[in-house]
TrEMBL record:
<feature type="compositionally biased region" description="Polar residues">
    <location>
        <begin position="9"/>
        <end position="25"/>
    </location>
</feature>
<feature type="domain" description="Fibronectin type-III">
    <location>
        <begin position="334"/>
        <end position="418"/>
    </location>
</feature>
<feature type="domain" description="Fibronectin type-III">
    <location>
        <begin position="163"/>
        <end position="249"/>
    </location>
</feature>
<dbReference type="InterPro" id="IPR036116">
    <property type="entry name" value="FN3_sf"/>
</dbReference>
<dbReference type="InterPro" id="IPR013783">
    <property type="entry name" value="Ig-like_fold"/>
</dbReference>
<feature type="domain" description="Fibronectin type-III">
    <location>
        <begin position="419"/>
        <end position="504"/>
    </location>
</feature>
<feature type="domain" description="Fibronectin type-III">
    <location>
        <begin position="505"/>
        <end position="588"/>
    </location>
</feature>
<protein>
    <submittedName>
        <fullName>Fibronectin type III domain-containing protein 7-like</fullName>
    </submittedName>
</protein>
<dbReference type="InterPro" id="IPR003961">
    <property type="entry name" value="FN3_dom"/>
</dbReference>
<feature type="domain" description="Fibronectin type-III">
    <location>
        <begin position="74"/>
        <end position="162"/>
    </location>
</feature>
<feature type="region of interest" description="Disordered">
    <location>
        <begin position="1"/>
        <end position="25"/>
    </location>
</feature>
<dbReference type="Pfam" id="PF00041">
    <property type="entry name" value="fn3"/>
</dbReference>
Length: 777
């Protein structure tokens, strides 16, 4: 017995004394050093109550302190009679029962280090949790309140083989196949088959790992027991499984269509043994199943199907063989793809894809005004007449012995809109065309295109009128109106109409004044076959000229201002006017002009006012010299005139802007020069001779003598230098004037006067005395 205590201070040793409580046997003691706190006492009697006393002693063996307790010793060691294994995970041990033992511990060990202790109440006892076909060393210990005894003498025993792990199946209604994995150390396998509800048993032994049981009842459950044998002839664990065979083939299978909201396929059969569920399978892949009923319904059915129906019965082992097939044809499908084409204008066709199990087709075509027609054919195309601007609806039905197909795809085809009638192309401005037409059926939009070879202009509108602006002037446009629909696009077969735009406006390049009454207008023209009209707009008059070339002449009034513009005219219309160019003509020439010689070297020129003139330059020109004056008046005094000279008379009129008109008039001839060296000589018979020195030339002269009482004159022609005056009254002072005559015969009035005194000598003329010159009055 082992005792444990707490240490005591100062103790040098401890003494344990074990004294039997109810036995006369002597006490037993043992002594330990002062550093020990646990010790055992041997040689005690089994299953006996002892008083255990521990004393702490010093070096003088004096007891310093003590303590006591009572404990019972373990029972006697049991004896193993035998050990055997009935299961692969346990060994049963039979041993002797000892007095005072309350329980027993069975210890199991093996060479792989396994160790376990199992508590049992009596013999025999079983150790579990062991490995199959493994040798163990077994021993037994008895147990009471005092503890456990020493192990008994060991005994070796081996566990039996584990049961094979069976896999069963029924590949057919009369056969079951059993398979298992091989077991180590197994030399033989035993299998026993028993049919449920019968005493018939079949026992087979084999060293293989599979076994087939044939000629069995279909749809019947069998139990299969199996165990393995080791080389020592020990039977291993036993396993029992249950396997049912597949059911037999269902008989009397019938199929028929059921009518309701939808068309279904009902399949009927007879019940067979061992079936849990029945499945009807169609060749289309559809199926239906039933557990209790003798029919099932395949739904929904599809069109154009040729069903081949078989029925199989099934349980947990698998399905039976299929029944004999039953055939059924369903109504046809409508064509999946239907389309309408218009290979040529006005000729349409409706075409569809081919459908299986169809005898013939009927195609229906309905126009949007209600007209309907149909076509019966075995092919996949029907033809019909189609008119532009209409919509057509078409559907196709398929037929076979089972009936007609459901309504199929409805296709809509709209023919292209018709080309419009009453199309009119009008030129509403120089570069704008207005196109109008009658509305056409089916047109959702009108596309108007105008092309002149270099540009395209589009106009899209829903109204039957369109204005194309910003066109090129003097261009021939081809105008096409295309009605369009959303489905068919635009009708590209419509005829074109041609219309030329108004001519381009000419550009005036220059205006040149040819003379005082005529201007020539030049312009740049880009039109073909156009006539041009030039307009000169004055304050009070409108002047025009026309030409098909690039210039024309306009007769204008002098002294006027004009706005000059031009426009072109063709058969298409009239262009816009060109930009205006201002034109100012030269001032008018004075209608009258007169030249008066005031003195021998000075003339006075006068003229009438000229329209548009602000200033004038008047000129007298001759080979012997010229004279001119610049004035804003209508008269001018010119000096330095040479007498006896012919002059050209001209006048230049200037406007306020500097425009000039040159005016020419009849020439002016200055009168002959006044004679010089005028002398008065006394002649016989009271006659006086007037003498002068004249200018070269055959001029005519007149000599006048003016006295207080009488006047006298005489003439000389063809350049003569003197003339005589008879019967002169003496005693007078005479004023003598000798003047040339003009071409018109008038007398020049500006020649100088001379005074002479004529004295009397008796009754006759006496002395003639020169008294000097006298100013002109």
């Amino acid at each position: 017995m082992t005792v444990r205590w707490s240490g005591h201070t100062g103790a040098s040793s401890y003494k344990i004394t074990a004294t039997p409580k109810n036995s006369p046997e002597p006490s037993v003691f043992a002594q330990f050093s002062g550093s020990t706190v646990m010790g055992s006492v041997n040689s005690l009697s089994p299953n006996t109550v002892y008083r255990m006393r521990v004393e702490a002693m010093d070096n003088a063996v004096n007891v310093l302190s003590s303590a006591e307790t009572e404990e019972t010793t373990a029972p006697e060691v049991p004896f193993i009679h035998q050990a055997y294994s009935k299961h692969s995970d346990s060994i049963t041990v039979e041993f002797s029962v000892v007095s005072g033992a309350t329980s027993y511990i069975i210890r199991a060990e093996n060479d792989d280090g396994f160790f376990s202790e199992s508590l049992v109440n009596t013999s025999p006892g079983t150790v579990v949790g062991l490995l199959p076909y493994t040798q163990y060393t077994l021993s037994v210990m008895s147990v009471n309140t005092g503890g456990r005894s020493q192990p008994s003498l060991p005994l070796n025993a081996r566990t039996v083989l584990v049961a094979p792990d069976l896999f069963s199946s029924s590949p057919s209604s009369g056969m079951i196949v059993i398979e298992w994995n091989p077991l180590d150390h197994a030399v033989l396998y035993s299998l026993v088959m028993t049919m449920e509800g019968s005493d018939m048993r079949v026992r087979l032994n084999t060293s293989e790992t599979n076994l087939n049981f044939t000629n069995l009842q279909p749809g019947t459950t069998y139990s299969i027991k199996a165990n393995a044998w080791d080389p020592d002839g020990n039977q291993g664990d036993e396993i029992t499984i249950y396997q049912i065979t597949r059911p037999p083939v269902p008989g009397d299978v019938q199929v028929q269509l059921t009518l309701g909201r939808s068309i279904d396929l009902a399949v009927y059969w007879q019940i067979v043994r061992g079936a849990d569920v029945y499945t009807a399978v169609s060749s289309t892949g559809q199926n239906c199943s039933s557990n209790l009923d003798t029919f099932c319904v395949i739904s929904p059915l599809s069109c154009s199907q040729n069903h081949s129906i078989t029925v199989t019965a099934q349980n947990e082992a698998g399905p039976s063989d299929p029944s004999s097939p039953q055939d059924l044809l369903t109504f046809p499908c409508p064509p999946e793809l239907v389309w309408i084409e218009e290979p040529t204008t006005g000729n349409c066709s409706v075409t569809w894809n081919k459908v299986q199990w169809v005898d013939h087709y009927i195609a229906y075509v309905k126009r949007d005004d209600g007209l309907e027609e149909q076509c019966n054919t075995t092919g996949t195309t029907c033809y019909f007449q189609c008119i532009c601007g209409y919509s057509y609806l078409s559907t196709v039905f398929a037929y076979n012995l089972a009936g007609t197909s459901p309504p199929g795809q409805i296709v809509n085809y709209t023919t292209i809109p018709c080309c419009p009638d009453n199309l009119s192309v009008s030129l509403i401005s120089t570069e704008t065309l207005e196109i109008s037409w009658s509305s056409v059926r089916g047109a959702e939009l009108y596309e108007t295109i105008a092309a002149d070879g270099s540009e395209w202009i589009h106009c899209n509108d829903t109204a039957p009128v369109c204005a194309l602006s910003d066109l090129t002037c003097d261009s021939l446009y081809s105008v096409v109106v295309r009605p369009c629909s959303e489905t068919q696009g635009c009708n590209k077969t419509c005829s074109a109409h041609t219309r030329r735009t108004a001519p381009c406006a000419p550009v005036i390049l220059n205006v040149t004044q040819v003379n005082s009454s005529t201007v020539e207008v030049f312009w740049m023209a880009t039109n073909t076959e156009a006539n041009y009209t030039v307009i000169a707009m004055g304050l009070s008059q409108l002047l025009t000229c026309s030409s098909s070339s690039t210039s024309c002449y306009i007769s204008v009034s002098c002294g006027s201002t004009y706005d000059v513009s031009a426009y072109a005219t063709t058969t298409a219309g009239q262009s816009l006017p060109s930009y205006s160019i201002p034109l100012e003509t030269g001032p008018c020439c004075p209608e009258t002009l007169s030249v008066d010689q005031v003195t021998q070297s000075m003339t006075n020129i006068t003229w009438s006012a000229a329209t548009g003139a602000r200033s004038y330059i008047t000129s007298l020109t001759s080979p012997r010299g010229h004279a001119r004056c610049h004035t804003m008046d209508t008269h001018c005094l010119l000096g330095c005139i040479t007498c006896g000279t012919s002059y050209n008379v001209s006048l230049e009129a200037f406007s306020i802007t500097g425009h000039k008109s040159e005016c020419s008039y009849h020439g002016f001839s200055a009168s002959a020069c006044c004679p010089s060296s005028v002398r008065l000589y006394r002649m016989d018979n009271n006659t006086l001779r007037v003498y002068w020195r004249s200018s070269p030339g055959l001029y005519n002269y007149t000599a006048d003598l003016h006295g207080t009482r009488s006047n006298y004159s005489c003439s000389a022609t063809n350049g003569a230098h003197g003339c005589d005056i008879s019967e002169i009254l003496c005693g007078e002072v005479y004023t003598v004037v000798v003047a040339p005559l003009t071409q018109e015969g008038s007398k020049v009035t500006y020649c100088p006067r001379r005074l002479y005194s004529v004295s009397c000598s008796g009754n006759t003329v006496g002395m003639v005395i020169y008294r000097g010159r006298r100013s002109v009055d």
